[in-house]
Specification:
Number of helices: 17
CATH class of the domain at 108-174 and 214-260 and 297-341: Alpha Beta
Order of helices and strands: HHHHHEEEHHHEHHEHHHHEHEHEEH
CATH superfamily of the domain at 108-174 and 214-260 and 297-341: GTP cyclohydrolase II
Distance between the termini: 28 Å
Helix content: 25-40%
CATH architecture of the domain at 108-174 and 214-260 and 297-341: 3-Layer(aba) Sandwich
Shape: globular
CATH topology of the domain at 108-174 and 214-260 and 297-341: Rossmann fold
Length: 397
């Protein structure tokens, strides 16, 4: 059954000047007020009566979570103490009361992130990278870093932790070089030897190849629809693949992969925005109609990850000037070069090679995304979000 939308209904959609902040809308919504206040009150055994709206402190109270702990040397037990006293301390034990996240601020020192694990990832073409997992004090998500080459290392991962063994460091990836296999088939079938009897087997450190003084860096926000679902509404998957290809070619680089789907609004809201786009609204207006900003992404965690990897100068793969401004703001990181990421379908139009690519509209082949919906999306990014991409003069969207 077709759905008819009258002109009156369409004109009733909010405009950009009528945008109401998300917090204001939440507090105007009686269902939000009732449900959130009710659940919060009873989950904390408060005896006071319900208020018409939850107070600000209640809404912003962080949820306690187990944090990985980096123990400073000054906090360790005295090494002269009896062995029985030392044996009660372990570097992996979290504090009784985890520290609450600080209020967000645009300073890299407050956006602390630390690497909890690292492992080598081989790829089908014979290359490899080290995948790093980061926890942080800004949110409850695990963010990632794809690190190419051996010269870029995490300071927090390499930091010596209290009472750890060689195998403890190997398990979390705090080793240099490559691991070699030391477990026989017989050992694999039986219980592994414990303690000092377990040999980790570090292979010889590979010889470092010459790399650029300043590495390529891509700060990439996750996009399930574009990277996994092969959506032609965006070029996110294409950009990620191209960034990885360039870093493999140079033998060095970092992809900081931030878990902020849909320019920070989440996957469910992103799908709602898609429905509004199908009605004719562009990607910016769709977000505003859902009471979001046009772009709600933040880059404090990315700043902290780059700092942890020892990168204070980067060549940034991006078309987005806002990303450059946010990465450099209140930090020691400097973007000494912006490396543009021209959409491959537009690049083919400019070069006159468009007909050489046999790509069906809406499909992904040869790392190329193409289609009228993609063209519309890219034009909005250029015209309304300041992205630095040249629109092909011959394009008729």
């Amino acid at each position: 059954m077709n759905t008819d939308i009258s002109m009156a209904e369409a004109s009733a959609a909010p405009t950009q000047t009528e945008y109401i902040s998300r917090n204001a809308v939440d507090h105007m919504n009686p269902f939000f007020s009732k449900n959130h206040s009710h659940a919060y009150t009873h989950s904390h055994n408060h005896s006071h009566s319900h208020k018409p709206y939850p107070d600000t402190h209640a809404l912003q109270t962080p949820v306690p979570r187990r944090l990985s702990v980096q123990i400073e040397a000054s906090s360790l037990p005295d090494s002269s103490a009896p062995p029985s006293a030392l044996s009660t301390a372990t570097y992996s034990t979290p504090p009784a009361t985890p520290p609450l996240a600080q209020a967000p601020s645009k300073t890299i020192t407050d956006a602390i992130a630390w690497c909890t694990a690292r492992a080598r990832i081989p790829t089908p073409d014979g290359s490899e990278y080290f995948l790093h997992i980061y926890e942080n004090t800004k949110d409850k998500k695990e963010h990632l870093a794809f690190v190419f080459g051996d010269a870029i290392r995490s300071k927090s991962l390499d930091k010596v932790q209290w009472n750890e063994t060689e195998i403890d460091r190997v398990k979390r990836g705090a080793y240099t070089g490559r691991l070699r296999s030391v477990v026989s088939d017989e050992q694999q079938d039986n219980a592994l030897p414990a303690g000092d009897n377990y040999s980790t087997g570090l292979a010889e450190m590979p010889q470092l190849t010459s790399t650029p003084l300043t590495p390529l860096v891509r700060i990439h926000s996750e996009c399930f629809t574009g990277e996994i679902g092969h959506s032609a509404r965006c070029d996110c998957g294409e950009q990620l693949d191209e960034a990885i290809r360039l870093m493999k070619a140079e033998g060095s680089g970092v992809v900081v992969y931030l878990r902020q789907e849909g320019r920070g609004i989440g996957l469910a809201e992103k799908l709602r925005a898609y429905n509004l786009q199908d009605l004719g609204y562009d990607t910016v207006m769709a977000n505003l109609m859902l009471n979001h900003g046009a772009d709600e992404r933040t880059y404090e965690v990315a700043q902290a990850i780059l700092e942890d990897l020892g990168l204070d100068q980067v060549r940034l793969l991006t078309n987005n000037p806002d990303k450059i401004e946010q990465v450099e703001k209140d930090s020691q990181i400097k973007v000494i070069e912006r490396v543009p990421m021209m959409p491959k379908s537009w690049e083919a139009i400019v070069q006159g090679t468009e007909k050489e690519f046999e790509v069906k509209e809406g499909a992904v082949e040869n790392k190329i995304v193409r289609g009228k919906e993609l063209d519309k999306y890219l034009k909005v990014k250029v015209e309304r979000m300041r992205h630095l991409i040249a629109i092909p003069s011959s394009m008729n969207v």
